[in-house]
Task: inverse folding
């Protein structure tokens, strides 16, 4: 099998260095993904490998030859390239386009033989496009066209296939189909596939090995384990949560919005939450500059994972265990220090009923306490404590907990209150209803 | 209807039956060309029946003259062999040349709007040719007239200039190509007109030629241009598969082994060769290079191996018929053939623009 070896290459456009000291050794049947932000040199690297941009320093070996000593047509016999977003200028039929892949193997005046047609049709059958052979390439959908272009590359009978963002502009079903196809090429046909990708989840799921680029340099290279929060932060400057997809056993990355530095407030919000009900509020409040605390959360709970990711102080309880007296008291300590309290947790069972007691404590302390209508309704609907939760809920309402319509209304109310008390160290209890009345029209409940 | 016809032809022309079916179509187009030439010889101020035309030809082919058992009139013989036949052949040669050059430009620029006229090549050739007249350099050396050489130089410089002007980064966008081509055409047209005002004596005969006309064509014109057009066309045809690959995109074609920069240079020079020779016989004939390759692509295949031959045959037929029309429409006077092709081509060009817009919008 032909191997592709890139050793310590530097590439320049004019006098600007675009990529520096990149190495890549591939093995038969390997699916390599190149990831990195726009302008990180991904396409340049691919151009360099594809015999288009000669590196100033370093070597690229295809098979047993230095690639830049080979003729373009000889490279084309071993390596096929699928460029980014290419369009075909005239209305060729799909089969005609695929047959063009045979061109490197034909002499100038030769006409495609039956054998060439058979190879082209095989390639189309492999990509599931044989039924499109008589259709005009200009009339095909994006996904169909991309598969025809890949068939054309396969008709070259290459051993190395390079692709520049082959899934851009495609819908999710087509993205998966293309990636499945590329993976099959590696597994069945033992091709080396090197692709530039934008979607790290897609790359993580299909690629055997990855190269992470930033500013033309390799940040990390190796198998998909290199997709850590830290590495992604380094190259994209975004926060992410990296989990494992339990079905595919590959890393699964959830990007969070770019952390923008909101002016820090001296106010603390405590969230009584659980089972993921408080996660989005935690993120939004942090983004808005509040100090956030939460409790009581069981370990391994979704909200607990979010809180630990956001580095929020919380009180915790062991997994699957009822809230102990100790945890409850710790929670009350956090509440005492908070300027606002929000209750989102539901449903209630004997395990977490103490969280409603904590809410009652907050109201009794005169701390402005909020609850979202929908959750109050759900508490009524899913009460696993034979009415105890409902009683406590009623009590909360009687004592003056503030009900708000939804999260945006809640955030608006908090921001309104926070503005009123800007500069004040302590917050005197306020008749919250007046605050709500002052809210702008569109967010008032 | 055109689409139905097209889908039938696409199936018929698809590999591997392509080559076989294609031969019949080429043969049919060639037959049409022959018929159009005979028609062109037959009609005019004096109409000549087909039997007499065939008789004259047979009588003048050594060895076959025994077959002609009726007398052929010397007047008809002279009219056919000295006037109408060379003129029809010139029209056919120029039509084929312009259509081939058009197909090459369209393939090279990956743009169906390109043709020798719209990208300024024709005007460049005309400027070169007229400049040679002014300089008194239009002389015959070793039996070859130098005017086509001047036309060639003018054409080549113009094409490279327009190409360089309209290139944005790595691409040649339609708008800039057409705009710079048209701007250059107008500029050169103005210079040529200025020549006419400044040197009326030298240009008494050529003003009609500039509008596109075969009125003064003779055998010598045909033989002068033949070599240029045949050599240029053969070179273009040699690179027809490369033109196909280029349709996939510039970088794609290089990844399939095409030496792109070399291809561009060779094709620009070869097309300039063909355009210059065509212009030096027929003058400025618009739109043949635009509509003929387009029609051939629509009717048969965008495969340049087919397209170039189909364009040549269709272009030749089209221009022979247009020239015939130009002769008879206001007989005994003549219209410049450029007027006829422009009347046919202008609306077609607008139709292409509209269609392109729709495609871009959708």
Result:
């Amino acid at each position: 099998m032909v191997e592709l070896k890139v050793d310590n290459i530097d590439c320049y456009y004019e006098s600007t260095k675009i990529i520096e000291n990149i190495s890549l050794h591939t093995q038969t049947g390997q699916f390599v993904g190149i990831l990195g932000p726009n302008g990180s040199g991904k396409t340049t690297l691919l151009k360099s490998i594809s015999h288009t941009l000669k590196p100033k320093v370093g070597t690229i070996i295809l098979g047993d030859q230095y690639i830049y000593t080979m003729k373009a047509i000889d490279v084309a016999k071993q390596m096929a390239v699928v460029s980014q977003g290419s369009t075909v200028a005239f209305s060729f039929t799909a089969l005609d386009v695929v047959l063009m892949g045979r061109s490197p193997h034909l002499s100038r005046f030769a006409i495609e033989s039956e054998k060439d047609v058979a190879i082209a049709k095989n390639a189309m059958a492999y990509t599931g496009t044989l039924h499109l052979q008589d259709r005009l390439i200009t009339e095909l959908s994006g996904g169909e066209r991309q598969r025809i272009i890949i068939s054309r590359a396969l008709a070259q009978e290459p051993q190395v296939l390079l692709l520049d963002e082959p899934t851009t502009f495609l819908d999710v079903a087509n993205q998966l189909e293309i990636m499945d196809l590329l993976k099959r090429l590696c597994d069945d046909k033992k091709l080396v596939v090197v692709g530039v990708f934008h979607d790290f989840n897609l790359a993580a799921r299909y690629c055997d090995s990855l190269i992470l680029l930033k500013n033309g340099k390799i940040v990390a290279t190796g198998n998909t384990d290199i997709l850590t929060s830290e590495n992604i932060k380094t190259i994209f400057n975004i926060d992410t949560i990296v989990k494992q997809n339990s079905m595919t056993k590959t890393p699964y990355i959830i990007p969070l919005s770019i952390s923008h530095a909101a002016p820090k407030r001296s106010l603390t919000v405590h969230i009584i939450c659980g089972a993921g009900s408080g996660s989005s509020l935690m993120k939004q409040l942090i983004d808005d500059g509040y100090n956030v605390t939460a409790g009581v959360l069981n370990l391994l709970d979704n909200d607990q994972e979010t809180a630990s990711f956001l580095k929020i102080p919380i009180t915790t309880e062991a997994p699957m265990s009822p809230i102990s007296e100790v945890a409850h008291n710790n929670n009350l300590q956090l509440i005492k220090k908070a300027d606002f309290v929000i209750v989102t947790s539901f449903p209630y069972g004997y395990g977490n009923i103490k969280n409603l007691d904590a809410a009652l404590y907050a109201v009794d302390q005169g701390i402005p306490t909020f609850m979202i209508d929908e959750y109050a309704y759900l508490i009524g609907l899913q009460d696993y404590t034979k009415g105890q939760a409902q009683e406590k809920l009623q009590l909360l309402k009687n004592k003056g907990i503030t009900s708000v319509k939804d999260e945006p209304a809640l955030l608006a109310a908090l921001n309104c209150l926070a503005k009123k008390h800007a500069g004040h160290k302590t917050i005197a209890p306020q008749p919250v209803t007046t605050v709500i009345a002052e809210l702008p029209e569109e967010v008032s409940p | 209807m055109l689409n139905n016809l097209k889908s039938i032809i696409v199936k018929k022309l698809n590999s591997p039956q392509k080559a076989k079916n294609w031969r019949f179509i080429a043969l049919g187009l060639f037959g049409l060309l022959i018929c159009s030439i005979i028609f062109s010889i037959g009609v005019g101020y004096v109409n000549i029946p087909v039997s007499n035309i065939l008789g004259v030809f047979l009588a003048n082919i050594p060895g076959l003259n025994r077959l002609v058992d009726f007398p052929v009139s010397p007047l008809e013989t002279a009219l056919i062999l000295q006037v109408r036949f060379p003129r029809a052949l010139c029209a056919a040669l120029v039509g084929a040349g312009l259509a081939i050059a058009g197909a090459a430009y369209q393939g090279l620029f990956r743009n169906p709007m390109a043709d020798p006229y719209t990208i300024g090549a024709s005007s460049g050739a005309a400027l070169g040719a007229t400049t040679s007249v002014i300089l008194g350099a239009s002389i015959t050396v070793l039996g070859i007239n130098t005017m086509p050489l001047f036309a060639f130089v003018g054409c080549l410089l113009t094409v490279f200039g327009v190409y360089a002007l309209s290139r944005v980064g790595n691409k040649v966008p339609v708008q800039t190509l057409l705009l710079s081509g048209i701007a250059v055409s107008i500029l050169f047209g103005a210079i040529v007109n200025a020549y006419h005002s400044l040197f009326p004596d030298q240009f008494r005969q050529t003003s009609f030629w500039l509008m596109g006309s075969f009125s003064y064509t003779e055998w010598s014109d045909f033989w002068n241009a033949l070599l240029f057009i045949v050599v240029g066309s053969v070179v273009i045809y040699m690179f027809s598969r490369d033109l196909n690959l280029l349709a996939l995109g510039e970088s794609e074609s290089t990844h399939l082994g095409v030496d792109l920069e070399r291809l561009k240079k060779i094709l620009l020079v070869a097309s300039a060769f063909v355009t210059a020779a065509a212009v030096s016989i027929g003058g400025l004939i618009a739109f043949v290079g635009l509509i003929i390759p387009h029609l051939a692509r629509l009717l048969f295949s965008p495969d340049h191996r087919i397209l170039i031959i189909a364009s040549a045959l269709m272009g030749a037929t089209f221009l022979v018929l247009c020239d015939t029309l130009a002769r008879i429409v206001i007989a005994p006077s003549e219209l410049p053939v450029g007027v006829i092709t422009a009347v046919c081509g202008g609306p077609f060009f607008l139709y292409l623009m509209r269609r392109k817009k729709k495609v871009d919008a959708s």
Remarks:
- The first helix of chain A runs from residue 42 to 49.
